[in-house]
Specification:
By secondary structure, the protein is mainly alpha-helical. The protein is built from 12 helices and 2 strands; from the N terminus they run αββααααααααααα. A hairpin with a 7-residue loop joins strand 1 and strand 2. Helix 2 packs across helix 12, helix 4 runs antiparallel to helix 6 and helix 9 runs antiparallel to helix 12. The chain is globular. It starts with a helix and ends with a helix.
Amino acid sequence: MQKTYKKYFALFVLPTLIAFTLFFIVPFIMGIVLSFCKFTTVTNAHWVGIANYVKAFSNKDFMNALLFTVKFTVVSVITINVISFALAYGLTRGLKGTNIFRTIFFMPNLIGGIVLGYIWQLLINGVLAHFNVTITADPKYGFWGMVILTNWQLIGYMMIIYVAGIQNIPTDVIAAEIDGANKFQTLYKIIIPMTMPSVTICLFLTLTNCFKLFDQNLALTAGGPAKKTAMLAYDIYTTFYNRNGWEGVGQAKAVIFFIIVAAISLTQLYFTRRKEVEN
């Protein structure tokens, strides 16, 4: 049987490998090359070296978007994971109607980002209308609006992952409670350490999703006021498509964006996986 699998392995892998190479590896490499070029299409690219990267880092809008994205990601990652873990812990305590609550909490994750953005724009503007302002009147309204929207969308998804992690904890927890450990000690010393694989997954997903957020940002604030609530993905989009002659700069920003997200994500995975080994 093993020989048969090995015989046809290449036949089944080849179509996927070809598609992955053509639609991911090749465009990725072309994108890196084009980040060093001035172009409007891939056929008229002219090499300009690091000029695009110099323009990107000297662009005030890009630096503002980077700072806004970092602040938003830090706040959102903390709130999403704390609330989702708390909900998961509560829903694994044998409460009645647990399955119904899980379904309700998960449902927002099924709604598209653009739809969510416009829904929350209507809701938040409806509240702010009592104060004669809109969500784009002040950057802080847009910031907290984005945080609330992202929390509402992702908490249910992360909660399901935490629920699975908590339910996989062996009966040693019961023994610990019998031995005199209170609920806080059980949570801190046993449940959290033993759900570290779930923590690793949830931190990775929330970090990457928050950094890459685009459609919700577009629908909710569109960067307003004056691009002060523009996130990195939205700033790259506007640079590439809305500024003539800046396509290369937009591509350079995209490469920088990839490096930042990859570096932060890999660092997070390294440290949280070390916790898994220790525990």
